[in-house]
Amino acid sequence: MGQVRCFMKRSRNSKKQKTETSKKLLLFSDILAVSVTAITVAAVFVLQDPSPLEFLIPAVFGLAATSHGFYYWKAKNENMAKHGNHLKEDEYG
Questions:
Q1: pLDDT in tens, the chain (93 residues)
Q2: Cβ-contact 65, 26 below 8 angstroms
Q3: CA torsion angle 36 39 43 49 (round to 10)
Q4: Which of 7, 33, 75, 86 could be joined to 64 by an S-S link, Cβ 3.0–4.6 Å?
């Protein structure tokens, strides 16, 4: 008798990759910035008072900018560790 083969259907990615926490936080800060902006703009039109624009919008976009800066800094460092720093010491000055 020949070999018995198990014909289980395998997906391309048999291991399901978990989303990184930093990406989740980045997405959360972006969603927060968009939702607070939309609610603030609606409140300005309803209340006829533009004062929330002075505080809420810069606060959420400051959070989003900080989140993006942290994420890119982290990705840069991970890529440098992964691929190695191929620059010579002479190039630094």
A1: 555 555 555 555 556 788 888 889 899 999 999 999 999 999 999 999 988 888 888 999 999 999 999 999 998 888 888 887 655 444 554
A2: no
A3: 30
A4: 33
Structure tokens, 46: 């309803």
Task: Say if 69 falls within a structural domain.
Answer: yes
Q: What is the CA radius of gyration of the chain?
A: 24
Burial class (CB in 10 A: 0-12, 13-18, 19+), 21: exposed
Q: Dihedral, CA atoms, 75, 81, 82, 87, nearest 10 degrees?
A: 100
- Does residue 78 fall inside a structural domain? yes
Instruction: Give pTM, 2 decimals.
Output: 0.65
Q: Name the domain count of the chain.
A: 1
Q: Is residue 67 part of a domain?
A: yes
